[in-house]
Design a protein that fits this description.
Elements lengths: L11 E5 L7 E9 L3 H12 L9 E7 L18 E6 L4 H12 L2 E6 L5 E2 L3 H10 L8 E10 L10 H17 L8 E3 L2 H7 L12 E4 H5 L12 H12 L2 E13 L7 H18 L4 H5 L1 H10 L3 H6 L9 H17 L6 E2 L9
């Protein structure tokens, strides 16, 4: 099924800006739904970009709220750059991601969610890569991003406790990755995810993840068969047929929030995507083959008790010694991997959040 055109009967109404019928070089697209305070910060981060005068660029805000209006945003928008669309029906998160691709006219499409922030050198870096022909053969470029934890919020799942855990990982990463060299451009595939049992694609399309529009439109889009893990499953197939590359420049800020990821139904979908990766790689990857039972156990036990009750669990043999070995080997492989790019936001950038 082609999910890109699944909702063609539902119109996206242009409520601000002028329609564009010509291809531009870069489309920055922002799928949004009822988060205007965060959205304002995202818009400001785009307006302060260096290099906007060096590229033919459009910014598309696509709201999934049929009642959405731009009264709160008018002071921030400018017609030569921004276009605001309102879906006449809620297409769902996945549907709106696909709609952004359809509405964009750029040779390249840059995704940013409505609660994330582009650092002011993002566009400047993209312009430089385009001008020097460095991404001509890349179908998806994933720049590094800083991770922001709301440590002041004591009730947040991604508060002080999670922040301290990531701080420890940063220290261990420095120790365990001695001797490894992080390349400026690192091709990433499903095999990389299997080798470390980690989503090496960096999560969903956000924070300036850049697609070649022509390549994206050749796919069937993001699938609704995995309503929450759609991004991970999409990239498993996309990286088999197209060139997906990590870019070793920190160009954005990813806000860690108490989103839907902790809900049992969401975690159930994450488990399904884990098993999708398992099925793709269990017969061709030594790590997955050797630790077959341990990977299934890890994927299951890493979910909440509420989620576990909902999961149709794949059977496995329990071996505590081998499981401890798996956890240790996985962690060392992950910390030494070129694809593990998590880095906490430096204090000097806190004012941008």
């Amino acid at each position: 099924m082609n999910y890109l055109i699944a909702d063609t009967n539902i119109e996206s109404e242009l409520i601000y800006g002028c329609p564009n019928y010509k291809e531009v070089e870069l489309s920055i697209v922002i799928p949004t739904y009822k988060r205007s305070e965060y959205l304002k910060k995202t818009i400001r981060s785009i307006k302060r970009q260096k290099g906007l005068d060096k590229i033919n660029c459009e910014v598309l805000i696509v709201s999934n709220d049929p009642e959405f209006n731009i009264d709160d945003l008018k002071g921030l928008l400018c017609e030569h750059l921004f276009k605001v669309y309102r879906n006449k029906e809620n297409l769902g998160m996945v549907g709106n991601m696909n709609r952004c691709a359809i509405l964009a006219h750029g040779k390249y499409i840059s995704y940013i969610q409505d609660d994330d922030i582009l650092l002011e050198n993002y566009v400047e870096n993209i312009v430089n890569l385009i001008e020097h022909g460095m991404i001509e053969n890349i179908d998806c470029l994933i720049p590094n991003r800083y991770y922001y934890y709301d440590i002041a919020n004591k009730n947040s799942v991604f508060g002080e406790k999670s922040y301290k855990q990531e701080k420890k990982k940063e220290i261990l990463k420095k120790l365990l990755s001695v001797g490894t060299v992080i390349k400026d451009f690192q091709k990433v595939t499903t095999k990389d995810c299997a080798n470390t049992w980690f989503n090496c694609y960096g999560g969903g399309p956000t924070c300036g993840m850049l697609f070649k529009r022509e390549s994206l439109l050749k796919t069937e889009g993001f699938s609704r068969e995995y309503p929450y893990a759609f991004d991970f499953v999409f990239f498993m197939d996309f990286s088999d047929n197209y060139n997906v590359v990590l870019y070793n420049k920190y160009l954005s800020i990813y806000r860690m929030t108490d989103s839907a990821s902790n809900r049992p139904d969401v975690q159930k979908d994450f488990y399904r995507s884990d098993m999708c990766l398992f099925e793709k790689t269990c017969n061709i990857n030594w790590f997955v083959t050797f630790f077959k039972d341990e990977i299934i156990r890890f994927s299951f036990e890493n979910k909440s008790l509420e989620a576990q009750e909902m999961i149709d669990q794949v059977p496995y043999v329990k071996n505590n010694i081998k499981y401890a070995l798996f956890r240790m080997v996985r962690f060392v492989k992950l910390m030494r991997s070129n694809t593990y790019r998590r880095k906490l936001l430096p204090e000097e950038l806190l004012y941008k959040v």
